[in-house]
Design a protein that fits this description.
The complex is a heterodimer.
Chain A lengths: L3 E13 L7 E13 L3 E5 L6 H8 L7 E6 L2 E2 L5 H10 E4 L13 H11 L5 H14 L16 H13 L5 E5 L7 H18 L2 E5 L3 H7 L2 E6 L2 E7 H7 L3 H8 L40 H5 L5 E4 L2 E3 L6
Parallel strand pairs in A: 3-8, 3-9, 6-7, 7-8
Antiparallel strand pairs in A: 1-2, 1-4, 4-5, 9-10, 10-12, 11-12
Helix pairs in contact in A: 4-5, 5-6
Chain B lengths: L5 E14 L2 E14 L3 E5 L6 H9 L7 E10 L2 E2 L5 H7 L4 E4 L3 H4 L6 H13 L3 H14 L5 H4 L9 H13 L5 E5 L7 H18 L2 E6 L2 H7 L2 E6 L2 E7 H6 L4 H8 L39 H5 L4 E3 L5 E3 L6
Parallel strand pairs in B: 3-8, 3-9, 6-7, 7-8
Antiparallel strand pairs in B: 1-2, 1-4, 4-5, 9-10, 10-12, 11-12
Helix pairs in contact in B: 4-5, 4-7, 5-7, 7-8
The chains are: A alpha/beta, B alpha/beta.
Protein name (chain B): Oligopeptide transport system ATP-binding protein
Organism (chain B): Acetitomaculum ruminis DSM 5522
Keywords (chain B): ATP-binding, Cell membrane, Membrane, Nucleotide-binding, Transport
Chain lengths: 318, 325
């Protein structure tokens, strides 16, 4: 996995308030990272940390305020018109709620046809053949094509969402809470399907979830976000054995686990995530951190590599 | 555990819903009992009837379309099903209270939080307004709301999700109920906040000796919080066991499947095992065991006959033919 697929450099997404008083929300604040070909890059964080905004920015569903996103030699952040449309062939997204992102008045066939129509594919026979391939690829059958979304279960609808994302043979897929709305038994089916497809088609995933267990299950590398910042990036093994940032430690220890052996000593975080429109000074996490010093309050820690491939933004590791 | 006093007994409860597509048996012959101070977990996937079972206890099943068609709910020697709406109002919020998943939709947006807590004290305890307000502030302190005096005068929208859930818990606990029913109280919250709320429920259970019925789809939460666990599938209890034993040694094929389908944080990763297919449509009539279409061990007998509830030992029950004889 030495091939670079996507490189994000100092990406910032700021949302302005209605008036001057309400201030600016820094949803994504100066984030840089790389995604390699064929890997699954997981992103975790609590609500409001900017993980979805980051995912949407990577495929330009959201314009970045500043920064560059390089993919295949072009900067996604500055693409326009036709180039932007072509880029979207290469990067697709799967959303959380499959019922909300499928048009209820269209059949599954019409839904799957749409990407081809948008991108000007006129060969009807090819499109039909492709649709049948796609529906089988995600574990459904051709008779499902004539159905409407309401006639399907949540898991089946999510499979349609996946098939639609795969229609144009993209190389990168953003999974934004793709399994969060599903029941455990169905969630496992969809996670296994995603894994299978990745191996079969050589896909790369940018996998966003608030559920750490799920991110752990699928990811090769994981980025942890807190209040618009990336606080730690590490490989799966590193994160399991040598997680460094106090927030990562607290977050992982807060997950309820089924068996005693997997349960860790809980680190109790006091308080709540501060408002992103008025983040704390210095390190954003210092208000809840158990090892906070004066320096953390004054100076913002930079994301730095503490060992090969392991990035942490914390003064403890200087 | 020497908790022997049974406080609530649900026996053969059946609930039906009339829908456009026909009658749905949301709950079939539900039987369980809750002891004093016990934390009982009810788990299941969506549509398994876990919420309806608790709404039944509270007398809150919307009628129509829902209807309790059989069984009894015995609380303090009386059958709650026979009670009139007036009598239930005295019990609700006073002796049995409930917290819901989304605090924003359960709190009144135009009444200050302190008043909402005081309301149940005025109603059930006959307190004067001022006295109730003081008690409300005391309870807010108890559930971990910092600066309760000021926050009592805030409206729900001024609070965060975690704080709102604390207000809900404060309302529910204001009258020191015997039973607290918590329906997915942490599902809408972030994990670090969830951990705080679970700690709070644990503390309240210990200090006030309130029995808790905790409904969730998250097996991890149940494993951490509850003493006893009921696993539901298609409106039936398929397994009941002490939490420790259930997670160590699940008996029913559905429980087994469910447990191995959860992604876990372990050193070695393997593909998740799955339960084939999906939960059947509730309007479908299934003969035999309702899990048999998805069960890897299903035999002809499972498809034709409904399995009995097998008593494995004093505390364990499983509804499966594998354990008959």
């Amino acid at each position: 996995m030495s091939n670079l697929l996507l490189k994000a450099e100092n990406v910032k997404v700021y949302f302005k308030g209605k008036n001057k008083k309400s201030g600016v929300v820094k949803a994504v604040d100066d984030i840089s990272f790389e995604i390699m070909k064929g890997e699954t890059f997981g992103v975790v964080g609590e609500s409001g940390c900017g993980k979805s905004t980051l995912g949407r920015t990577l495929i330009r569903l959201q314009d970045p305020t500043e920064g560059h996103i390089y993919m295949d030699g072009s900067d996604i952040a500055t693409l326009n018109g036709k180039d932007l449309k072509n880029m979207r062939k290469k990067a697709q997204i799967i959303f959380q709620d499959p019922s909300a992102c499928l048009n209820p008045r269209r059949t599954i066939r019409q839904i799957l046809e749409e990407p081809f129509v948008i991108h000007g594919e006129k060969d009807k026979a090819f499109v039909n053949q492709r649709i049948e391939e796609l529906i089988k690829l995600v574990g459904l059958d051709t008779y499902h094509l004539s159905r409407y979304p309401h006639e399907m279960s949540g898991g089946q609808k999510q499979r349609v969402g996946i098939a639609r994302a795969l229609a144009l043979n993209p190389s990168l897929i953003i999974c934004d809470e793709a399994v969060s709305a599903l029941d455990v038994s169905v969630q496992a089916q969809v996670l296994n399907l995603l894994q299978e497809l990745k191996e079969k088609l050589g896909l790369t995933y940018f996998f966003i979830s608030h559920n750490l267990n799920v991110v752990y299950q699928v990811s090769d590398r994981v980025g942890v976000m807190y209040l618009g910042k990336m606080v730690e990036i590490a490989s799966y093994d590193t994160l399991y054995e040598k997680r460094a940032h106090p927030y990562t430690k607290a977050l992982l220890s807060a997950i309820p686990q089924v068996t005693k052996e997997e349960r860790e000593e809980r680190i109790h975080l006091q308080g709540e995530v501060p408002s992103p429109s008025n983040p704390p000074s210095g390190c954003h996490f210092h208000t809840r951190c158990t090892s906070c010093t004066q320096r953390c309050k004054d100076e913002e820690p930079k994301l730095r590599e503490i060992e090969p491939g392991h990035f942490v933004a914390c003064h403890l590791y200087d | 555990m020497g908790k022997t006093e049974t406080i609530l007994k649900v026996k053969d409860l059946c609930v039906e819903f009339n829908t456009v597509e026909g009658k749905v048996n949301a709950i079939n012959n539900l039987t369980y009992s809750l002891h004093k101070g016990e934390k009982l977990g009810i788990v299941g996937e969506s549509g398994s009837g876990k919420s309806v079972s608790s709404l039944g206890v509270m007398g809150l099943i919307p009628n129509p379309p829902g209807k309790i068609v059989g069984g009894e709910i015995i609380y303090k020697g009386e059958n709650l099903i026979d009670k009139t709406e007036k009598e239930m109002e005295k019990i609700r919020g006073n002796e049995i209270s409930m917290i819901f998943q989304e605090p924003m939709t359960s709190l009144n947006p135009i009444i200050k939080c302190g008043q909402q807590i005081a309301e149940s004290l005025i109603l059930h305890r006959g307190m004067k307004k001022k006295e109730a307000m003081e008690e409300a502030i005391r309870i807010m302190q108890l559930v971990g709301i910092a600066n309760p005096k000021a926050r009592a005068h805030e409206y729900p929208h001024q609070m965060s999700g975690g704080m709102r859930q604390r207000v809900m818990i404060a309302i529910a606990l204001a009258c020191h109920p015997d039973i607290l029913i918590a329906d997915e109280p942490t599902t809408a919250l972030d994990v670090t906040i969830q951990a705080q709320i679970l700690d709070l429920i644990r503390k309240m259970n210990k200090e006030l000796d309130t029995s808790v019925i905790f409904i969730t789809h998250d097996l991890g939460v149940v494993s951490e919080l509850c003493d006893t666990v009921i696993v539901m599938y298609t409106g039936r209890i398929v397994e009941k066991a002490p939490a420790k034993e259930l997670f160590k040694d699940p008996k029913h094929p559905y429980t087994k499947g469910l447990l191995s389908a959860i992604p876990r944080i372990t050193k070695e990763r393997a593909a998740l095992s799955t339960i084939e297919g999906s939960v059947p449509n509730p309007t479908e009539k299934i003969s035999g065991c309702s899990f048999s279409p998805r069960c890897p061990y299903a035999t002809d007998r499972c498809k034709n006959e409904e399995p009995p509830v097998v008593k494995l030992d004093e505390s364990r029950r499983v509804k499966c033919f594998q354990y008959v004889d």
